[in-house]
Amino acid sequence: MHTPEYTHDTDDMTLTRTKRMIGRGTLRCAAATLAATALVALTGCGSSKPSYCSDRSKLESSIKGLTSSRISALPSQAATIGSDATALVNSAKGDFPNETSAIKTSVSALETAVKALPSNPSATQIAALAPSAAAAVSAVNNFVTTTKSKCS
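Above: the chain sequence. Below: its structure as tokens.
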């Protein structure tokens, strides 16, 4: 049987080629790892704002909508405020227990007062909503002020 002879030059070329292939593979692997790490880091930093900030914005909009609602739309608007308040309370109660408790209590009182209105309320009955609405607005404004630096 004939065994081929390898020259020193052939072995060096093969070794050099192998080193280059390994070097490229290592470089590609390192680049892929770096890219994946950067992607994970950027995903984690996609928003530097806490998650409750978007819930806060929704509730602010709902509260502002209360002043422009027709009387017939008050029950629907109060329900929207209640839903948005619940979302905010759930997302922020760990960080702001006092503020979220005030929002929960005041919005619940507003919802109860709106539900108690007859289908065709008088001006006096609508005026009776003012303290509940003012308390809800105050609680939300307090939360907005408290979280301003985190959500701006």
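The radius of gyration is 32 Å.
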